[in-house]
Each structure stands twice: as C-alpha cells, then as structure tokens.
Design goal:
seven-stranded mixed sheet, binds nicotinamide-adenine-dinucleotide, globular, Aldehyde Dehydrogenase, Chain A, domain 1, six-stranded mixed sheet, 464 residues, single chain, Aldehyde Dehydrogenase, Chain A, domain 2, alpha/beta
Length: 464
C-alpha cells in the first residue's frame, strides 16, 4: 500500500502551512463544506437509502443536520477558541507573562463506522479543520454507497493536500493507522478501538476513541410503565437500533414489567404499523453478518428459555430484522452481555433501586445512562451512584444535538470527547508559553547557595 505512504507524506508536509491559517480561512473552508453538503443533499439521500434503507427525513435529521449545525456553531466560536488563553502569575514567576496557545496537532486520521456514515465522518472533520489540521478520512467499507458519496464530495471542497478520503476495508484501515499521525480520531466498536490504541502506541500517537457498549434505560416506578415502553420503542427503532447511543436494555420494576411490554408493543404499532418490514421508514441491518449475529443471539436466548416477542418475521434476504423484546433472559446470555446494536430490547427487572444501580455497575461504563423519571432526587441518586459518558433524563439522544456539551464515553465506551470546545481541543495541542521579564528573581536562586541566598530562599518559602 505504497500510495498510503505518499498520501501520508503529502498531508504531513502540508500540515505546518495549514496550522498557520487564521480563523477566517478555516471558517471559509467550513462554510464551503456546508454549501457542498446542501447542494448534494439528494445524493446523500440516495446513498443512505442504498446502504441502510434509511428514510430521507432520517438522513436529513441524523446525518446532514448534525454536520451543518456543528459548522454553524464552530464558525460562531472559532475566533474565541483560537485566541491565546492568558493566565495570571504566581508570585514566584513575576515579572513575566503566561498563556496557552491551542495549536494544530498536524496530520490527523479519522476512522469512522457505517451506522451514521456522513455524520460520523464529517462532524469530526469539522473540528479537525477548525483546529487547522490536514486530514485523512477513512469511512466504513460496510456503507460503500456513502463512502463513494464522500469520496466525490470532499474533493469539491478541499484540495488533496488538505483533506483526502481513503476508501477501503479493514486492511486499508490497518495500513493507514500504521503511520506516525499526530492524532487518530476513531469511532467504532470497543474491540477495534482497543486494537487502534495499541497500534497508535507504536508512534505514541494520541487517540480519541468514540466507542460503544450497553447503554441502559432505567424506568422510575411512577413514570408510567406503558408510556415508558412506547418511548423506548421509538428510540430502539431509530436506524433499526444501530445507534451507539441507543438504549441497549431496559430496567423496570418487577411489578411493572408487563405494562412496559404492552407499552413497547403499542409504540411499535404507532410508529411503524403491524408490518414494519414493509414500512419505508424502518431501516434495515447493514450486512448479513450483523443480521446473522442478531438472529443467533435471539435463538440462543429462546433456546435457554427466554420469552421473545417480534413484531413480524425476520427476513435475511432483505436484511430486515424486526423490533424484538426479550425477557426472562439469563444474565450470561449474549443479549445480556454484548452490545446489541440492533432492534432487540432485553427487559430486566429490579425490586429496589439499589438493584438497578448494581445491575448497571456490574457491566462496563455506558456511553449513555438513560432515565425515565420525574423524581429529581431519585435520578440524582442514580447519577451519583454510576459512571457514564452522559445521562439523559426523560428522552433519548438529545444530548448529542447540543453543540456545546462534550460527547464521548468513559473507559470501554470511549476515551476523549468531541463536540463544542472539547472537540476543538481534542484536535489541538495546548501549548504553554511562559515569557520571562527582562529581570527575574529566579536569577538570584541558583548555586552557589551563599548564606544570603539561603536566607532569601527560606524567606520566600514561608509564602509557598
Ligand atoms: P468497527 O469497529 O467494526 O469499525 C469502525 C471502523 O474501523 C471502520 O471504518 C473499519 O473499516 C475500521 N476497522 C475495522 N477493523 C479495523 C482494525 N482492525 N484496525 C483499524 N481499523 C479497523 O465498528 P462498526 O461496526 O463500523 O460500528 C459499530 C460500533 O461503533 C458499535 O460498537 C457502536 O457503538 C460504535 N459507534 C460508536 C459511536 C460513538 O460516537 N461513540 C458512534 C457510532 C458507532
């Protein structure tokens, strides 16, 4: 893969020039990206329909809008973010001045997944460009129509020495990672994220890892179990559950489980009708491999005695998998232990709130912990007793849409943050600059330590 060596060399050579660009030059690039995206909206719709049977309004809301609103937000903030940050001085450093400069990292690599393939390529790109980096962008091989769309779109906005899209599969991703990038921004599964981090360690390349895992939704006993079930049905239906921040499983008080299940079924009917398989608003599974995984997990649960409800029949040739409920399922089954990333919802029960907290804390730290709850002290108690990348109360996904909230996980659900100033700083090096005045007392504090210097140090130490 020698062409990747040449590509890296070009981006690396051009990085210093891009790092010197001013805010208005970076803003012009971002605005050009927004314009191009708007101009090619119908091609984006077609690509997502081909890759994921994605409904066009879903593409507008979940792919294009997050990119254009990120651009608007960044454009409004960038001058302030790029300004050197002045810091006061401790007495020992007077006279002088201190500041932090947020400089570009250099040549960076962005590796993205297939589930929101425009959003998850271009939102990180917005922040990388805002920070003044050159970028190689590697979309997923599992969403080939969208990868081809991006490979056509990006050269209309950026010259190849600034941003380049590299199409290809796992081998291409591995070969790309095996270069001394100044930063790697990876979005994908925890398993591959760990491999990416190990490869990056070879060059001590810094990484942002936007990963996944099991995000629970805990339902308060007084929320209304049927309403909760219906709400979760909507959240689980989005992109056929192939969302990193989808509610992975539900925790409901044991006496309310049946009402929750009824609510979920009613919610599925309301949003997708009796036959979501025929509904163009319900997405399909990205690849037969993932379809097989989901079906094998449901079969495993059924064989072990779990209760299963499916709105209609799975259809492998269409890559259609129905919204599915699983309950009375053991804690060591695959749906209980692994990130589902599909339209299957296991329902677990608790008796005391402490049981629900213990259930969450037995697993790895979630990307999001959802709560359906109108009792502030109950929800504060759950938040305090758990650790998660984010917590959303009484709705789903909305934290992702807030432009200045940090987005990301913790430990296995992710390392580092994106969005807002957090996203900008992830792609920059915070460089401390201390400038000493013409005269400084530190000159007096060097050897030889004569008696008067020792006395001075003892006197100064009283204030330290
Ligand atoms: P994945 O980890 O299989 O693949 C992601 C990207 O990594 C793809 O571009 C792929 O080509 C590349 N890749 C695959 N194997 C690689 C390797 N060995 N070395 C280097 N790169 C490699 O993930 P996926 O199936 O595309 O996406 C699903 C996962 O992504 C889920 O776990 C989901 O939770 C997570 N996700 C996280 C976020 C987030 O923002 N936190 C967003 C979307 C998806």
């Amino acid at each position: 893969m020698e062409h990747l060596d040449a590509l890296y060399a070009t981006l690396n050579a051009h990085a210093p020039a891009l790092g010197r660009t001013r805010a208005n030059q970076r803003i012009a690039r971002l605005q050009a990206l927004k314009k191009a995206l708007r101009a090619h909206r119908s091609e984006a719709h077609a690509a997502l329909r081909a890759d994921l049977n994605r409904a066009e309004p879903d593409t507008d809301l979940n792919e294009l809008l997050p990119v254009t609103t990120s651009i608007d937000y960044v454009v409004g903030q960038l001058r302030r973010w790029m300004r050197p940050e002045k810091h006061g001085l401790p007495i020992t450093l007077i006279p002088g001045s201190a500041e932090v400069v947020y400089e570009s990292k250099g040549a960076v690599l962005i590796v993205s997944p297939w589930n929101f393939p425009i959003n998850l390529c271009l939102v990180p790109l917005v922040y990388a460009v805002a920070a003044g980096n050159t970028v190689a962008l590697k979309p997923s091989e599992l969403s080939p129509a969208t990868s081809a769309f991006l490979a056509k779109l990006i050269p209309t906005v950026f010259p190849p020495e600034e941003v380049v899209v590299v199409e290809g599969g796992v081998e291409v991703a591995k070969a790309l990672i095996d270069h001394p990038w100044n930063h790697i921004f990876f979005t994908g599964s925890p398993q591959i994220g760990s491999q990416v981090m190990a490869s990056a360690a070879r060059y001590l390349t810094s990484v942002t890892l936007e990963l996944g895992g099991k995000s629970p939704v805990i339902v308060h006993p007084k929320f209304g179990a049927e309403a909760a079930g219906a709400r979760v049905a909507w959240a689980k239906g989005l992109n056929a559950g192939q969302v990193c921040i989808a509610p992975d499983y539900a925790l409901v008080r044991s006496d309310q489980r049946d009402a929750f299940i009824q609510g979920f079924k009613a919610g599925v009917l309301r949003h997708y009708g009796e036959h979501p398989s025929e509904n163009p608003d319900f997405g399909h599974i990205v690849h037969e491999r993932h379809w097989d995984r989901l079906d094998a997990w449901v079969t495993e649960a059924r064989t072990a005695g779990a209760q299963i409800w499916q709105v209609d029949a799975p259809n492998r040739s269409e890559k259609y998998y129905p919204l599915t409920l699983v309950w009375d399922v053991s804690l060591d089954s695959s749906v209980s232990c692994s990130e589902i990333f599909g339209p299957i919802l296991p329902v677990f029960t608790y008796i005391e709130t402490a049981d629900a907290i213990a259930h969450v804390n037995r697993g790895s730290r979630p990307l999001v912990l959802y709560q359906l709850c109108h009792d502030r002290s109950w929800s504060d108690g759950i938040t305090a007793a758990t650790r998660a990348g984010a917590t959303v109360i009484n709705d789903f996904y909305l934290h992702y849409m807030h432009p200045s909230l940090p987005f990301g996980g913790v430990n296995t659900s992710g390392i580092g943050k994106s969005h807002g100033i957090w996203g900008f700083r992830e792609f920059t090096n915070a460089r401390s600059i201390y400038r000493r005045g013409r005269w400084s007392p530190t000159m007096l504090l060097s050897p030889p330590y004569t008696d008067w210097k020792k006395g001075l140090i003892a006197w100064v130490s009283r204030w330290l």
